[in-house]
Amino acid sequence: MIRIQSLNKRYGERSVLQDLNMHLAPGEFAFLQGRSGSGKSTLLKLLYRDIGDFSGQIEIAGKPIESIPKYELRRKIGVIFQSFELLERKTVFENIALAGEVVGVSHSDMVDEINRLLLRVGLQGREEAFPDQLSGGELQRVAIVRALLNRPALILADEPTGNLDSETASDIIRLLLELQAESQLAMLVVTHSDRLVAEFPSKAWKMIEGRVTANELI
Ligand SMILES: Nc1ncnc2c1ncn2[C@@H]1O[C@H](COP(=O)(O)OP(=O)(O)OP(=O)(O)O)[C@@H](O)[C@H]1O
């Protein structure tokens, strides 16, 4: 699903990612661990093309990333953020529906799928709630539904538990792993937390100062 070869990324004179070689198969789950500033978000941003300008190769589903039109990438990849990135003035339903709108799906074609996903994550009946009426764990579940709406083949999650207490963080990782297994999704989850990686033994890369130093299957 993701193949990275000899990837280097610089911000001006500063080298942020150095000679990365990574492979995530379709339907595979992996953590990406590393301290603040090690380059994790930069890698994720390159993968969903929020930023560009790199050397080396990034392939998504067998195609060089630069050859994939942005709208196609948005269908293939669902992204989840630490800060949830929900719009305060829109309801849960409207926030989720935005993901369909950007790829041209009408509301009426999304209703059943949104309801199915809300039920799956335990948020049935909360469609009309606004973000300020939800807990952090609930907000992240809304963001997960939004990321799943277009039936992506890959989910990228940038520190999805960073704003949650440790029990809720475990709940969210457990949910992501269940969804990943049910839908045969490839999933790359960035975390600072050694505890979460120990709790959910999985493939885990460790990034130290822009280099991936371990690639282990536990
Ligand atoms: N737009 C930018 N311009 C210049 N330098 C940047 C830019 N974005 C990130 N950096 C630098 O690149 C390095 C890696 O940052 P990145 O955000 O990828 O780290 P991270 O591992 O995700 O950190 P955190 O866990 O705190 O989010 C840092 O030293 C950061 O200061």
Question: For this structure, what is the CATH class?
Answer: Alpha Beta
Tally the helices: what do you get?
Answer: 7
Strand count, sense and barrel status of the largest sheet are:
6 strands, mixed
Q: How many angstroms separate the termini? A: 20 Å
For this structure, the CATH topology is: Rossmann fold
Name the strands of the widest sheet in spatial order. Answer: 6-7-8-3-9-10
- What's the SSE pattern? EEEHEEHEHHHEHEHEE
Count of β-strands: 10
Mean pLDDT value: 94
CATH superfamily: P-loop containing nucleotide triphosphate hydrolases
Q: What count of domains describes the coordinates?
A: 1
Shape, per Cα inertia axes: globular
Helix content, binned percent: 25-40%
Q: What is the strand content?
A: 25-35%
Protein name: ATP-binding cassette domain-containing protein
Organism: Paenibacillus agricola
InterPro entries: AAA+_ATPase, ABC_transporter-like_ATP-bd, ABC_transporter-like_CS, ABC_transpr_LolD-like, P-loop_NTPase
Keywords: ATP-binding, Nucleotide-binding
Structure description:
There is one protein chain. The strands form two sheets. This protein has a six-stranded mixed beta sheet, sandwiched between helices. By secondary structure, the chain is of the alpha/beta class. The protein is 35% helix and 29% strand. It has one domain: Rossmann fold. It starts with a strand and ends with a strand. It has helices at 40-47, 70-76, 92-101, 107-120, 136-148, 166-183, 194-199; strands spanning 2-11, 14-24, 29-34, 55-60, 63-64, 77-81, 154-158, 186-191, 203-208, 211-216. Strand 7 (154-158), helix 6 and strand 8 form a beta-alpha-beta unit. The longest helix has 18 residues, at 166-183. Helix 3 (92-101) runs parallel beside helix 5 (136-148) and helix 5 runs parallel beside helix 6 (166-183). It has seven helices and ten strands. Adenosine-5'-triphosphate is lined by residues 11, 16, 34, 36-42. This is ATP-binding cassette domain-containing protein. One of its GO terms (molecular function) is ATP binding. Keywords: ATP-binding, Nucleotide-binding.
